[in-house]
Design brief:
By secondary structure, this protein is an alpha/beta fold. Helices cover 42% and strands 14% of the residues. The protein is built from 18 helices and 14 strands. α5 (104-116) runs parallel beside α6 and α12 crosses α13 (345-355). The structure holds nicotinamide-adenine-dinucleotide (NAD) and uridine-5'-diphosphate-xylopyranose (UDX).
Length: 481
């Protein structure tokens, strides 16, 4: 029986390994992590992450050929293939701070593999890493090799949260990069044979190591660039009376452009886009490609602009002050169908409003109060460090905040309501009831274009929808920078 071990039981390691276990009953899969709490949760009925369809797969395989354990060394030493799916955060200090990937967790995993291995291994980069990381890992492993042979493969993951199971069962492609040597090709074939259990051969792409590593950064940069492009257009739509939904439909029907990923929003979030683009920018700069780096940096700048533009619009519409006013926040996760809040635009919007002395009442169907408090008291980039290393939330910094468990409660006696995540339930709320419970004039700021703005206006709301023609009220308010 082939044995696989995955180091890192997170959003990628957990679901990916669960699917491998389901599709390959003859493979024994162990997912290991240094976080005791995470592993306990994977072994319980309350999995540590919310992902539609994940529970069913875990329940089917756990205890048969899928195991979750903190005994990292034992499982690594026994495995034939070791996936490494640990955090690769943005560096917060030192050389490259604020841009470069922090490979501390990766390096410590690699050193541990070198220490405990007693047999040949294929080591698979599952984390998103800078180009040429495989070379560094190879050096760490072979330096301590004790005669053991290691093959390093790059097998970046393209799943998106909220649709992870669907993406894993039916991926657009699986990418495997390896050394162009006989041993390298053999290792690529071994990993390919795992995926071939359920992925059609033509969708398994094999490249050299550096192409695979760079393709992951490039794919995320391209996706994020589409969102920043449509968000940049949304600002122009508001200024000109065009409607961003109509513009993106018209643009997206060109088959060369395509219709996906053109939804204007309050900004993109998630653990990957910003981190990976910053990493790409840093690599460009290290290679003397300043202009190329500046091009990609602009994608992040437009995203930051979109978030601050939203806050500015809100404050200026409400007579230029939200001091002491209650603002209801609907949605905190970075997108629907996940409880993940990493880099969610809600953090910047809420911090902006708190900075303007607003009182916030936040509701999200999947995010816990503890997480929200933690997010709003954490420094930039600190979030991507294993949870047990993160500081506890500081109540002092979040005095103006209440987390509630109902959209109606969030809206009660509020002056304004912001929609920051596109949860389906926000489409069908009783907005008349909400209107009646709010101070007047009652505002709705829809950062996801999920509410029916016309219906809400009929009720009496003043509505702002990203990239849509402005209400006369909003037009009359001072221009937003
Ligand atoms: P995560 O934080 O959810 O999980 C990482 C896990 O690794 C944590 O549980 C942490 O405790 C564990 N860990 C860290 N160092 C360890 C060590 N030395 N030994 C054992 N366990 C260790 O992160 P994630 O979202 O799963 O992302 C992992 C990687 O995959 C990142 O590089 C990310 O960029 C990439 N990625 C993420 C996504 C996504 O949607 N989240 C998609 C594609 C790629
Ligand atoms: C992304 C990539 O899609 C995935 O391939 C990669 O493996 C990890 O990073 P993820 O961050 O989980 O996945 O979600 P995604 O669906 O890409 O959404 C990212 C952010 O962009 C969310 O905040 C989402 O709301 C926003 N978004 C997405 C938009 O604002 N408009 C869109 O049209 C699409």
């Amino acid at each position: 029986m082939v044995k696989i071990c995955c180091i890192g039981a997170g959003y990628v390691g957990g679901p990916t390994m669960a699917v491998i276990a389901l599709k390959c009953p003859s493979i024994e899969v162990a997912v290991v992590d240094i976080s005791v709490a995470r592993i306990q949760a994977w072994n319980s009925s309350e999995l540590p992450i919310y992902e539609p369809g994940l529970d069913e797969v875990v329940n089917q395989c756990r205890g048969k050929n899928l195991f979750f354990s903190t005994d990292v060394e034992k499982h690594v030493s026994e495995a034939d293939i070791v996936f490494v799916s640990v955090n690769t955060p943005t560096k917060t200090r030192g050389l490259g701070a604020g841009k470069a990937a922090d490979l501390t967790y990766w390096e410590s995993a690699a050193r541990m593999i070198a220490d405990v291995s007693k047999s040949d291994k294929i080591v698979v980069e599952k984390s998103t890493v800078p180009v040429k990381t495989a070379e560094a890992i190879e050096r760490i492993l072979t330096h301590n090799s004790k005669g053991i042979s290691y093959q390093i493969l790059s097998n970046p993951e393209f799943l998106a949260e909220g649709t992870a199971m669907k993406d894993l069962f039916n991926p657009d492609r699986v990418l495997i990069g390896g050394r162009e040597t006989a041993e390298g090709r053999k290792a690529v074939e071994a990993l390919k044979s795992v995926y071939a259990q359920w992925v059609p051969q033509e969708r398994i792409l094999c490249t050299n190591l550096w192409s695979a590593e760079l393709s992951k950064l490039a794919a995320n940069a391209f996706l994020a660039q589409r969102i920043s492009s449509v968000n940049a257009m949304s600002a122009l739509c508001e200024a000109t009376g065009a409607d961003v939904s109509q513009v993106s439909h018209a643009v997206g029907t060109d088959s060369r452009i395509g219709s996906k990923f053109l939804n204007a929003s309050v900004g993109f979030g998630g653990s990957c886009f910003q981190k990976d683009i910053l990493n790409l920018v840093y690599i460009c700069e290290c290679n003397g490609l300043t202009e190329v780096g500046n091009y990609w940096k602009q994608v992040i700048k437009v995203n930051d602009y979109q978030k601050s533009r939203f806050v500015n619009r809100l404050v200026s519409s409400m007579f230029n002050t939200v001091s002491g006013k209650k603002i209801g926040i609907l949605g905190f996760a970075f997108k629907k169908d996940t409880g993940d809040t990493r880099e969610t635009p809600a953090i910047d919007v809420c911090k902006g409003l708190i900075g303007d002395k607003a009182h916030l009442s936040i509701y999200d169907p999947q995010v816990t109060e503890d997480q929200i408090l933690r997010d709003l008291s954490m420094n930039k980039f600190d979030w991507d460090h294993p949870i047990h290393l993160q500081p506890p939330p500081s109540p002092a910094s979040v005095k103006q905040l209440r987390v509630v468990w109902d959209a109606y409660e969030a809206a009660k006696e509020a002056h304004g309501l912001c929609v920051l995540t596109e949860w389906d339930e926000f489409k069908t709320l009783d907005y008349k009831r909400i209107f009646d419970s709010m101070h007047k004039p009652a505002f709705v700021f829809d950062g996801r274009n999920v509410v029916d703005a016309e219906k809400l206006r009929e009720i009496g709301f003043i509505v702002y929808s990203i990239g849509k023609p402005l209400d006369p009220w909003l037009k009359d308010m001072p221009a937003v920078a």
